[in-house]
Amino acid sequence: MTMICLYGSPLSGNAHKVRMALAFLGLAYEEETVDAERRQGDAFRALNPMAQIPVYAEGDFVLRDSQAILAYLAARHRPGDWDGHTAEERGAIAVWLSHAANEIFNGPALLRAEKLFGWTIDRSRARAVAMRILPVVDAHLAARTWLVGDRLTIADIAASPYLALAPDGGIDLDDWPHIRDWTRRIAALPGFPAMPGWPATNEWVREAAQ
Q1: Which of 38, 52, 88, 116 is the most exposed place for a label (fewest CB within 10 A)?
Q2: What does pTM read for this prediction?
């Protein structure tokens, strides 16, 4: 079987989306950390001319962009279940993939990047974007367990990391209890790969009790 290689970084929420999908699928893979300097080199740009992580490589097949990688993994390994059984579900999932790449990244993710990595951002704009998307997600989750349908889909995998990690950027998830509980449900799933800032739910409960 061809070995899967994930090019990423331990603190990247976008890389973690792919990490989660691979873990939930039970697929063996190797992960190669690619720092900011290496991303600008010719060897990495041959994999991704945008010089961004994550990159997924499986033999000669190379794919960039976390949302695209999730779509590929769903179509190959969990068709229908992860990417929609009906046209309506597929459309709804696409909405959340778009939110993950746009409002969630340009709001909560950028605020986190400023604090953790020293990115220069338009903070007021990032906060405004965050304050537009957070109430939408929280209200959507008020009466449902998952973003689309009655099960985990790539909508949840795409949208959850940077929302779970929003406290790193100064956002208190206790103000958004439905988002908070949803990210903890995901972190309670068998095989969930914890990352700094987003522990497995049993780890979070243990830490809170100390």
Answers
A1: 88
A2: 0.94
DSSP E strands: which ranges in the chain? 4-8, 29-33, 55-58, 61-64
Query: Tokens 């959507």 sit at which residue?
Result: 140
Within 8 A by CB and 6+ apart from 135, the residues are 176
Q: How far apart are CA 157 and CA 128, in angstroms?
A: 24
The gap between the terminal CA atoms of the chain, to the nearest Å, is 44
Closest CA to 53 of 94, 100, 9: 9
Q: What is the DSSP letter of 2?
A: P
Identify the residue whose tokens are 């903890």: 184
Domains of the chain (ranges; CATH) run: 4-77 (3.40.30.10), 87-197 (1.20.1050.10)
Compute the distance between CA of residue 15 and CA of residue 1 in angstroms, rounded to an integer: 23
SS3 202: helix
CA nearest 104: which of 56, 138, 146?
138
pLDDT digits (tens, 9 = 90+) for 9-54: 999 999 999 999 999 999 999 999 999 899 999 999 999 999 999 9
Output DSSP code: residue 198: B
